[in-house]
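Bump. Still looking for Chaperone SurA structure tokens.
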Amino acid sequence: MKLWKYFLITIISLYSLNMNATPVELDRMAVIVNDSTILTSDIDTEIKLFKANAAHNNQTLPPDSVIRTQVIDKLITDTLQKQEANRIGVKIDDNRLNQTIEDIAKQNDQTVPELRESIEKAGVSYTTFREKIRDEIAISEARNALVRRRINILPAEVESLATILNQETDTSVQYKISHIQLRIDSDSDSDKSKVEALAKSIVRKLANGESFRTLALTYSKGPKALEGGDWGWMRKEEMPTIFADQIKMQSKGTIIGPFRSGVGLHILKIDDVKGLQTVSVTEVNARHILLKTSIILSDAGAKKELKSFIQKIRNKEATFGELAEQYSQDPGSASQQGELGYQSPDIYVPEFKHQVETLPVGQISEPFKTVHGWHIVEVIGRRQVDKTDAAQKNKAYRILFNRKFNEESSTWIQELKASAFIETLKDDSYDN
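Sorry for the wait, here they are.
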């Protein structure tokens, strides 16, 4: 679940439970993460919000010490990703933030003032809420940009998967899965035996009806531990390979595992299963001009130059294609007069995706910024495709991309943690 969704549900829960903010002790540093710090107030706030959400949903929780450990791990991960967002210069302006908050309000059947009132009545600062949303958007963009660079998809992989997809029926199967990961920290036989015994014990507890969510919160070291191991709805093709290889059309409620991977032992539960009807795909053909900022060219300068291009096109002093060939710093499309060809919008970074999905055909956007630089874009055409060879190859590419993105995201986060300076400071108030 995205942070803003988690945060929104929680503040509503706080309001419904009439939980009022209480004075806190003098704030202290709890964890040092490179040049950033996580404060005790950050941890306490996350725990308070998490517990309120659990109480609202009548969920059983493990001991406070376990919840605190999981919360700290999540805050460390978020801090490292935010540092990466700052390093590559991801900035979320107020217009983008305001639009996201408007979307949140609509999904909650509220106006923005009503959303703000409910947040503040729950004892949560609206400024804190806005900055949490801003951070989550920035983290998501940094992760997308940096993990994309690590993904290499060979044409032969696309062809092979497209062939398999062509042989499938119109109905595909989707699974709602939950996951527990137990880490093996050393190669010693003793450590392996202990983890294997714990895994078998967890499976027995699940067979006896104990809550998967509670056991995941207590024991899991996987990426969804704080969500109770919930990965949500996924097709097999979208799952990490270690999950997909284990699922053989099992029914709802099936427990799978324990099974081993390079990082430890895993247990899966199939919470639900449903079939999905295949639908047509909208593809967009767009062209763009990209300018990258540098010591010589500032953000303001790039924006001004792109505006001048728009004016030249409107005055018929030059065509979009001519300007793209001459000035665009995306070599792949510049040689094609800026044209990107028919593609699913999902392959683009969020700001670019938004533009190609919402622009009318033939209209040129205002200059906008992504992690790649400053752009103007024009949508040339849209088409609906359904089960054509090209559509199947695009679908195969997206499946492969999503699978590798999930796998590489986990690896990327592990590498961030391994290379970071992380120090947890002593806090006697939490000792048992």
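The chain has 15 helices and eleven strands.

Edit: fixed formatting.
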